[in-house]
């Protein structure tokens, strides 16, 4: 097909974390996948996994015997593209500006979301999205383990915590400015049609506006 999709004769199933904050799924990793599938206009069913809400496999897509997990092949969207199941990027994936713009969303804005969700605010949003269906002792332990993991991932220590916070928020503000200038009055970034870049940014913005506290620094930056 012209847009890089193959014919799907039955519904895909997207398994994500639960809805809350008025979002179809309130997980910052799941939401861009949901939007990407909506952009593709391929029918799919949305289901939720509350048994293992902290699993790195979530989100994942099932289609017959086919499964694309979040923690394999670089993520669900990349797997769907490589397997030619749903590919909205076929005409732009080699364009240098598209590559650099998407990297900006996935790195600088991705780091800002991680920081704000797990370190920068009081943890209520993270508990609601990931752990609210679990017994209190378990969710508390899992939360603190995740906070420690995110600090390691972002290179945050007790010595550099303040400087890393300023750097993360500063990069997010610069990213918002660059993305706003690039998008202008257009509905989509490239070729007047949606790609995974648009899904990633829209997912980020919706999560920031709906799931994070209004007082957060990243909300003010956007």
TrEMBL record:
All copies of the Metaxin glutathione S-transferase domain together span 173-213
Q: What is this protein called?
A: Metaxin
Q: Where are the transmembrane segments?
A: none
Q: Which residues form the Thioredoxin-like fold domain?
A: 28-119
Q: Which organism is it from?
A: Penstemon davidsonii
* Name of a matching Pfam family: GST_N_4
Q: Highest taxon of the source?
A: Eukaryota
Family matches, as InterPro entries = Metaxin_GST, Mito_Protein_Transport_Metaxin, Thioredoxin-like_fold
């Amino acid at each position: 097909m012209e847009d890089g999709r193959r014919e799907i004769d039955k519904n895909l199933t997207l398994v994500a974390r639960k809805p809350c904050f008025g979002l179809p799924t309130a997980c910052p990793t799941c939401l861009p996948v949901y939007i990407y599938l909506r952009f593709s206009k391929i029918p799919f069913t949305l289901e939720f996994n509350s048994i293992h809400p902290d699993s790195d496999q979530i989100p994942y897509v099932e289609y017959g015997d086919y499964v694309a997990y979040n923690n394999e092949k670089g993520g669900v969207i990349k797997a769907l593209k490589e397997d030619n199941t749903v590919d909205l990027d076929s005409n732009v994936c080699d364009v240098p500006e598209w590559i650099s713009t998407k990297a900006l969303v996935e790195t600088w804005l991705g780091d800002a979301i991680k920081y704000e969700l797990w370190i920068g605010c009081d943890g209520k949003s993270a508990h609601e999205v990931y752990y609210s269906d679990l017994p209190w002792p378990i969710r508390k332990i899992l939360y603190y383990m995740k906070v420690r993991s995110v600090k390691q991932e972002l290179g945050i220590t007790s010595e550099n915590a303040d400087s890393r916070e300023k750097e993360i928020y500063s990069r997010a503000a610069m990213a918002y400015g660059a993305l706003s200038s690039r998008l202008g009055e257009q509905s989509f970034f490239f070729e007047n049609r949606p790609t995974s870049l648009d899904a990633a940014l829209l997912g980020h913005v919706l999560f920031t506006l709906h799931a994070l506290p209004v007082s957060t620094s990243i909300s003010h930056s956007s």
